[in-house]
Design a protein that fits this description.
Elements lengths: L1 H41 L9 H29 L6 H12 L8 H11 L6 H30 L4 H15 L4 H10 L7 H7 L4 H28 L7 H21 L9 H14 L6 H37 L2
Helix pairs in contact: 1-12, 2-3, 2-5, 2-9, 2-12, 3-4, 3-12, 4-5, 5-6, 5-9, 5-10, 9-10, 9-12, 10-11, 11-12
Length: 328
């Protein structure tokens, strides 16, 4: 009894130590990414508009709302795959999991999300597979929107268009239900359980289509978030109607580019460079230094997105702890 009890205590201690190590690792990389984003922002000349704080606050809310729609798809995918996950559980795991992308390799995203929804009601393998399903759908839709914009406005640079189309195809094919099931099985999901394998086959095209609709709306909100960031700068001629396609495509292309470079935490630098490519021609009409201003906007948008992610993750995690303490 004593030996079994000591082994149980040791496992509990190791598990808590591992969780603490993960939290410390994520916090350290998030802090480093924020510092690097601020250094980018501070090394270029910039000017904020009179109502900059309100516009940046709006940008943060819009950014969090964009992620929320993709989080809803992840929740729907988990339910479609037979997982009895609660909505709050899924959203908490989704937002907190986003902080894992600031750790090199981005595997921490899968680890955090899976760990936070793990329970007797949720299969770990299916949860991990669903993370890839949601992420690839988000990237596929973003690539499609970027390709549509590039086809019209960047015809003289076909390399960008071809890259966006290629990423859309690469990302979208694994989300097709038959291919998704085959890839999940090759990864070992459902290998030892006929019930788990049956749940993988529950994914249908209607669920995948809902992911495209929700992700498309999410990218629209992401474009609005970038537009609000532009409004925070002292830039004339910012029109919400004509500029939203540009902002949406810019945010999508930047995010997709940052996702592709796995070894760079959060795509830092890569995402900003992609934003500069699309924003510079637009800013050339209003400033003699469009590239410099585009880098400032990109760095500012990076800080807005990170602060938004940290804030909503903190709020949801504190709410979870209070809920757990109230109902032990």
């Amino acid at each position: 009894m004593d030996r079994d009890g000591s082994h149980t205590d040791l496992r509990k201690w190791l598990f808590r130590a591992a969780k603490l190590a993960i939290v410390v690792l994520v916090i350290w990389f998030v802090r480093r990414s924020l510092v690097e984003a601020w250094n980018q922002f501070d090394q270029h000349p910039w000017q904020l508009s009179a109502g900059w704080l309100g516009w940046l606050g709006l940008a943060g809310v819009l950014y969090a709302s964009a992620l929320f729609l993709s989080g809803v798809f992840w929740y729907r995918a988990l339910r479609a795959l037979g997982q009895d996950v609660r909505f709050f559980e899924a959203m908490r795991a989704y937002y907190v999991g986003h902080l894992g992308k600031y750790v090199p390799g981005k595997a921490m995203v899968v680890i955090l999300r899976t760990a936070l929804v793990k329970s007797r009601r949720v299969d770990t393998g299916i949860a991990a597979a669903s993370v890839f399903l949601e992420t690839l759908t988000w990237i596929a839709v973003g690539s499609f929107l970027a390709a549509a914009y590039l086809a019209v406005h960047f015809r003289h640079q076909p390399i960008y268009l071809l890259g966006a189309i290629g990423l859309m195809l690469v990302a979208s094919l694994p989300t097709c239900p038959p291919i998704f099931v085959r890839l999940a099985r090759r990864a070992g999901v459902g290998r030892s359980s006929a019930i788990t394998l049956g749940r993988l086959h529950q994914l249908d095209y209607r669920t995948v289509a809902s992911g495209w609709v929700l992700s498309g709306a999410g990218w629209g909100l992401m474009g609005l978030a970038l537009w609000a960031t532009l409004r925070a700068m002292a830039i004339p001629m910012v029109n919400p109607v004509s500029d939203i396609p540009l902002c949406t495509a810019s945010a999508a292309m930047a995010t997709v580019a940052g996702f592709v470079v796995l070894f760079i935490p959060g795509g830092l630098g890569v995402r900003e460079a992609a934003l500069v490519i699309l924003l510079s021609p637009y800013l050339a009409e209003t400033t003699p230094h469009p590239d410099l201003l585009a880098w400032v906007i990109a760095a500012l948008f990076r800080m807005v997105s990170m602060v938004s992610e940290v804030a909503i993750s903190g709020i949801l995690y504190v709410a979870y702890l209070r809920k757990r303490d109230a109902h032990p």
